[in-house]
Structures are given as structure tokens and as C-alpha cells.
UniProtKB/TrEMBL annotation:
This is DUF1080 domain-containing protein. Pfam families: 3keto-disac_hyd. It comes from the Bacteria. InterPro entries: AL/BT2_dom (IPR010496). It comes from Bremerella cremea. One of its GO terms (molecular function) is hydrolase activity. Residues 72-311 form the 3-keto-alpha-glucoside-1,2-lyase/3-keto-2-hydroxy-glucal hydratase domain.
Length: 319
């Protein structure tokens, strides 16, 4: 059904296009150009609704965050329609099929390149449950490095805003990362970066930490609260002898060995984040800002697979 969106007041010209919710960037650009042309002619142009800004991504400006009231499968029936892709070398296109759902319903992330699968919606106050395992393939420049990936929550700003440099976008959005890397599953990474309109976004979190022998912060319930606006906070049992090499496994690691499935849980409750790996509490973060945002699944040079990715309503009692 066509809808009238503009009328030239000095004549009987009516312009019709599809409803505003179905406008894509090209169509929005056309309407804006028409509006500018009318102004140049000194013609008054009446619009019954405001023109949307051109999107920085395939998704228009975010609305109110979704708070789950029932289980939300993020990959239902082998369907990725709740997501879009961002890759540093191809933007919103995925010509190498980095993200694919296999016939058995398992999501494969090839690891070829850097970027993410990103939710179109923002979420808040949820329990994220993921079951993943590593694949065999690794890619340059991390062919011999520890297999690396992650899940980002409360992501805001622009795609590629983290790592933006000299006008070139990076791989991810400003956010909080649930690190998934050999030897470091459960680390917190605070990713600051570029927001919309060139603003700087600096997510902030408070973590109770102790310092290891190298001075690196490690989460501990008996530690001292510190504010982090960038950098990494190691999970509770991270091996101080950790090395960025393929196959590394620390003596206290709770990630399942080899290619066995690992279950992670990220509890996002108001201004808190709680990280669990195979049922074990490994990190706890408070005073989180922002408290809502998109969810990203990373590709970072290593093949990995996801068989479950769901958002659950928060339990009444913190598990």
C-alpha cells in the first residue's frame, strides 16, 4: 500500500512511496534529495513524518531494548534473520560465508577475517546461554596463536567503532566482551571506541580485583574494586604463565578440552554482569555503563561452532 509522504504546497504534486518502515538507505537518500531540491526552488514541502537519518548499519536507529519474558532462540530453525554481518574487509557483505548455519542447525564461524555477527535489536536484563566448541581451522595472522573468539554484550555506537583509526573502521562495536580464547575463557574485555556522529564511547565497569605476579588484574571476590574503561580483567583461574600459542591450556581451565562442547552463561542484570563457564563462576562485574545494547558473536581468526544461543528471562535469584 502506497502512502503519501510529501506534497508541494504551490501545486498539486503528490509523491508516494512505500510506508516509512520499509524505506531503505537508497530510498531515504532519494527523499532527502527531493526535499533539498524543493528548498532550492523556494517550494514549501510538507512531510507528515520526520525523515530518518541514514543508517550506519543495515538497521535503523535502535529503539527500546528487548527484555526477555520467555526464551528467545537467537538462531531459530537455522535462521539468521535476527542478525547482520560486519567484516573489516567487506563491510556488511559476507562473500566468504564466514557465518553459516549447517544442515544440523549448528552455526559455523569459519574464522576467516575479523568482524562479527550482530543482532539487529538491543537487549537488556537477560541470561545468555551459549554452547560452543572449537574447530580445526585457524587463519593468518593467528594461525599459530591461541584460538580466539568471544561474545560482546551491551554493544553500542557504530559497527567497527572499536579499533577505528585514521578514518578506517575496526572489527567490533564499543561493548563488554565475554572472552573466549584458549586459556582465557571468561576474561572481561572493555572495548571503547567510536560512537555515532564521531563521538567517543567509553563503556565503564567496576571489578573487584587482585594483581597477579605480572601486575595484571584478576577478578576476586576478596579483591579491591577498580574502575575499568578499557583493557582486560582476567578470569578467576587464568594461568599466570598463559601464552598466546595454539592449543594452550592452563592448569585451572574450566573450558572443556579439545573440541568438546563448552557452556557459557552471561547474566546481564541491571548494572551487573556475571560470567560462568561450565557452571563455574569466573568473573563478576558491577556498575556497568551502558546497561543495554546489541549482542555480537566474533570471528577472530579461528573456526568455532555454536549449537545453542538463547536469551532467557532472568531468574529471580542470582544463580
Amino acid at each position: 500500500m502506497l502512502r503519501t509522504i510529501a506534497m508541494v504546497m504551490s501545486g498539486d504534486i503528490t509523491i508516494t512511496i512505500p510506508p516509512i518502515s520499509r524505506l531503505d538507505n537508497r530510498q531515504v537518500s532519494t527523499v532527502k534529495a527531493l526535499y533539498a531540491f524543493a528548498l532550492l526552488l523556494g517550494v514549501s514541502l510538507s512531510l507528515p513524518f520526520p525523515l530518518p537519518a541514514l543508517a550506519d548499519s543495515p538497521v535503523q536507529e535502535p529503539g527500546q531494548a528487548v527484555i526477555p519474558t520467555k526464551v528467545i532462540p537467537l538462531i531459530p530453525d537455522n535462521d539468521l534473520s535476527q542478525w547482520y554481518t560486519w567484516l573489516t574487509d567487506s563491510g556488511y557483505e559476507d562473500p566468504r560465508h564466514v557465518f553459516t548455519v549447517q544442515p544440523d542447525g549448528i552455526l559455523r564461524i569459519s574464522g576467516d577475517g575479523f568482524g562479527a555477527l550482530t543482532t539487529k535489536k538491543e537487549y537488556a536484563n537477560y541470561l545468555l546461554i551459549m554452547e560452543y566448541r572449537w574447530g580445526e581451522k585457524t587463519w593468518a595472522p593467528r594461525e599459530q596463536a591461541a584460538k580466539d573468539a568471544g561474545v560482546l554484550v551491551h554493544a553500542q555506537g557504530i559497527d567497527g567503532g572499536y579499533g577505528w583509526k585514521d578514518g578506517q573502521p575496526g572489527a567490533w562495536m564499543p561493548s563488554f566482551e565475554f572472552q573466549i580464547i584458549e586459556g582465557g575463557v571468561g576474561d572481561l574485555l572493555v572495548l571503547s571506541g567510536r560512537g555515532k556522529n564521531g563521538t567517543q564511547l567509553n563503556p565503564s565497569a567496576t571489578v573487584s580485583v587482585v594483581r597477579d605476579r605480572d601486575g595484571e588484574p584478576v577478578w576476586s571476590s576478596e579483591g579491591k574494586p577498580e574502575v575499568f574503561r578499557k583493557g582486560r580483567v582476567n578470569w578467576l583461574g587464568r594461568d599466570p604463565d598463559w601464552q598466546d600459542r595454539l592449543g594452550f591450556r592452563g592448569k585451572n581451565d574450566v573450558e572443556s578440552p579439545g573440541q568438546a562442547w563448552t557452556r557459557i552463561e552471561c547474566i546481564c542484570r541491571d548494572d551487573e554482569l556475571t560470567y560462568r563457564v561450565n557452571g563455574k563462576l569466573v568473573n563478576h562485574i558491577t556498575d556497568v555503563q551502558p546497561r543495554q545494547g546489541k549482542i555480537l558473536v566474533q570471528t577472530e581468526g579461528a573456526e568455532w561452532f555454536i549449537r545453542k544461543l538463547e536469551l532467557h528471562p532472568l531468574p529471580e535469584v542470582q544463580p
